[in-house]
Amino acid sequence: MTHDHDDLLDERLRRALAPFASGDADAGDAEIAEAGARPRGRILRMRMGFNPNSSSVGTTVVVFLWTMIGASTVLAATAGLLAYRFANAGASPDEADEGGGGEGAGGEEEAAA
Amino acid sequence: MSGRPPRWRYERFGGIIALEDPPVLAHVDRDFIRGVGIAPSPLWERADADEAAGEADVEHLSGPVEVHLTLTRRCPMKCDHCYTDSGPEATDERSTADLRDEIDALAEAGVFHLAMGGGEPLLRDDLIEVARHARARGVVPNLTTTGAGLTPAKAAAMAGLFGKVNLSVDGVREGLRRVFGEDKTSHAERAAPILRAAGVAFGLNVVVTRETFDHLDEVVAWASREGAEDVELLRFKPAGRGRDVYLRHRLDEPRRRALFPRVLELMRRHRVPLKLDCSSAPFVAVHAPDRERMDQFDVVGCIGGMSLAGIDADGTFSACSFYPGRGEAGRELPERWESSEAFAEFRRYTKAPPEPCAGCAYLETCRGGCRAVARFLTDSVDAPDPECLAVAAWHRERGLPDLGGDDAVARVEV
Question: Using CB atoms, which residue from B14, B230, B298 is nearest to A47?
Answer without folding.
Answer: B298
